[in-house]
Predict the 3D structure of the following.
Amino acid sequence: MKCGAAVAALSVALVHGGVAFADDAAGDEDDIRNMNQITVYGEKRETTLQDAPIALSAITGDILEQAGITDPSQLNGYVPGLMITKSGGSERIVTIRGVGQQTPENFATIPGVSFHVDGAFLPNSIALNMGFFDVDRIEVLRGPQGTVFGQSSTGGSINVITNQPTLGESKGTFKATLGDYNYVQGFASYNVPIGETAAIRGSIQQTSHDGYATATSIDGGYELDDADNEHYRLAALWEPTDKLSTTLSYTLYNDKHNGGALKNIEDPNPDIREVTQDFPAKFKLRSELATLNVSYELPFATLKSVTSYQDMSHDQSFDADRLDLATYGGYDHVATWATEAETFMEELTISSLPESGIDWIAGVFYSNTDSAQYVVEYRELGVTSIPGLPVLPRDTTPAEIPSNLAYENISTVNRESIAPFFQATIPLMENLSATVGARYNDDKYDGEGASYYSTPTASSFATQTWTGKVGLDYDISEDSMVYASWSRGYKPGGLNGGTSGALVVSSTYDEETVEAIEFGSKNTFLDGRATLNASVFFNQYENMQFIEEDPIPYAGGIGNIPEAETYGIELEGSYLTFNDQLMLGGNMAMLDGEVTADYVALDRRLADLAGDEAVNSGATYPWSYDWFLARQSAGVQVEGNTPPNLADLTYNLYAAWFQPVGDHGELTSRIENVYVGEYEARIFNTAGADDVPSYSLWNAYFQYQPNEAPWFVSASITNIGDEEGISGRFVDPYSSGTVSNEYVPPRQLLVTFGFEF
């Protein structure tokens, strides 16, 4: 699709509801504010947001700052169909259009929405805790990306593109932000040219704030949801010719703070910012990422290589029952949950030149991840005090296990993936093009695990399958396009290491596939002053992976629901009016779905209740046949239920006003409303546990930018009404089986002063 001739550089930069300022408006005789085409990489080829025949959203770094977004879970409502919520500890549940990862607590599984930073694939959802740092933009592709992104992309892909070094100019940026809860953030970057062919860019950011919530049953009160982290990045660019470009970057992230605030729904304290917990939560994360990007233009194609190495170590502890001793009648505490992971990735591609008649890309992807996990959990009921809860040595023998040890696990996993792929867009007629792509996925899993300090058991698993895409796009006019596509994505199967003696859960689980049909349209109106994009989709799940409980406690694992489907409609649009001073826009998604297969799954909470009733009726606790039978009888028929994390309605509506202040500068004002509708937290749809209510937030942003000065000052107010919205619901499949709410951050005022030099 081409742009209207009346506007040299058109269209809204952001579909989510924000305003991005054009870096260069030269040649735009109408000087239309932020109407230059934003460049995106989409399916690993450079295009523009309005010309890409896929469901793609882009969010610039400016918008992240204006909306106060520092954590991925704050993206909810900004991208149609995207849901990111916390799990029990540091893991994240990420879904797009209801497709993604439902099993982040299980060490052997992989996400269903792939996460990339500058082309580097990060396979562990813990990496999302790093937040966003020195970001140019975030691109979110919706729907299975089975060709150019492959496994881990059944729901879509999130690609973070950072600010890169630039040749020929020395420039720097400094920003300082202060706010409520003793919020302090400092950011600085500097770009240094080295001759005419090289440049180095360094950036640093440090963030801290007090906790948004307090654990009241720890002496003196104990802050939760605080922040104390630091980011460092150094990137070097070398372009000896106009055909060769090489960028080497290194990023270090350190985080050490108290844990997150998840409030038990049975907490007797009605204040959502006060949790009745009696065990201190800790969180530590250190992540290093080194990436080498090389691009070389051949006479007939462009050759690219992305090589990355990630080293991540993480440790946490938390109150698993999320209550105090008196309220819970005992304690259930995780003394440590430690994870280590090393990932090496290489992707080599060759693609057509920009003006080629056929747009094509071919490549091969390789990744190898070594991970290790160590968990120690203690539980005891009917006691009046909590003893010391040590992190036991890993060489503890079964004879030395204390009586209050509820769970212990030591696991190692190696995942290796290799996948050649190809995709081409071929013009069939003057305005009609076809896209065809395929990917062959070969994934291997080798693991070793032991629970309760028993002898480790080795296991292995392999999956090979094809994924791909077929699509058509038609340019109705220079400003309007329609497209249709079929795509297939998958997640590998694997092994359940802790299912020894299990009655229901199998020792293996099958690969998950998603086939999607999508119809869409992208349109530009009024000489580039308005856009309206729409997409309608239907997803067919096969063997949807979920956490499955077994009648034997701690013998659960990953199971497969045979069939499910999700479907919906998404709209995105913008309109610039009143002499280019008023920008209106937003996005909306309406989603639904259901499990379409006959399947009975065991809800941990209902199984526990059934087991307790059996004991009250005379069954022997634990491990008696009658007790197992009672727990198994609590199975739930999930056919007809709504899949998890499928909000019925989400939207973001905004209005921005650009007001000249005499001849001295400009005041930008923006107000937005973010709404996230009702959804189910799990496949069981259990009333009182899985039904998460909707919430609505109002945010505002103001910025003054002088015309001839290198500084600006801004203020943002988030959650103006101090709403108590539930941003996530966690139903613990392990330990005490508690149900906890994660709440949106409280109202917060942030003031930023920025300076360029």
